[in-house]
């Protein structure tokens, strides 16, 4: 069923431009304007940031929280929590997150090859599209940012699954924004890359929730709490995620070489 849903989702997402309505201009025009202006000043923004090895390292550590490994780990952990603790909200969040990540990965990869844009650290550093035509293809895979897309897709899914928890939602989108911004400060992407990636991720997350949630209008009405926050340990150079559900705290740490250590404290 998940595979059939994935194929159907892909078909609907790629054909969605055919179903654009006049009222969609309310978000399409600002999005197009922000992207165009950002592309115009992308290179200047990166140049203004300058070079800082320490900032690049910190930025890349921050983006590890939004890496595919971490996001998939979060989704699997959410599913297992829901399965073993009979929490349908958490279980569904895990399933929908995995579906959103799969769709996001496919769409962002296709768009990366379609735009063929140089990253800030390659070529002239100007973020050119098809700089050598097809003689040097692909020249870069900068647009859109996959990290930004995944982060906003997950934030959208979890926020929709926990309606009524405003502060949690603000935290989720603040975390997604931090991950996206770190891709810029770490010289991995231009600002327009994360704008496009974040927007696509948000839209994909909303689509998945709307079409596959068991009861998309009632999430969070019964005090179900489900959320996540990053954790780091400077001494051991590890990073990971804290997941909170119905008063229980689960901590998972993803080490630099992707070794996973799960900790569960039953007295909290």
Strands across the major sheet, in which order?
A: 1-2-3-4
As a percent range, the share of strand residues is 5-15%
Low-confidence stretches: 218-228, 243-268
The rounded Rg comes to 19 Å
Structural class: alpha+beta
Using DSSP, what is the number of strands? 4
Specify the overall morphology: globular
Give the count of helical stretches: 8
| Element-by-element helix/strand order | HHHHHHHHEEEE
Helix content: 55-70%
Largest beta-sheet details: 4 strands, antiparallel
- The averaged pLDDT comes out at 83
Distance from N terminus to C terminus (CA atoms, Å) equals: 36 Å
Structural description of this entry:
The protein has 268 residues and is α+β, with helices and mostly antiparallel strands. The protein has eight helices and four strands, in the order H-H-H-H-H-H-H-H-E-E-E-E. Strands 1-2-3-4 form a four-stranded antiparallel β-sheet. Helix 5 runs antiparallel to helix 6 (146-161) and helix 5 (88-115) packs across helix 8. The longest helix is centred in the middle third of the chain and has 28 residues, at 88-115. It is globular, with a radius of gyration of 19 Å.
Report a brief summary of the structure.
The chain has 8 helices and 4 strands; from the N terminus they run ααααααααββββ.
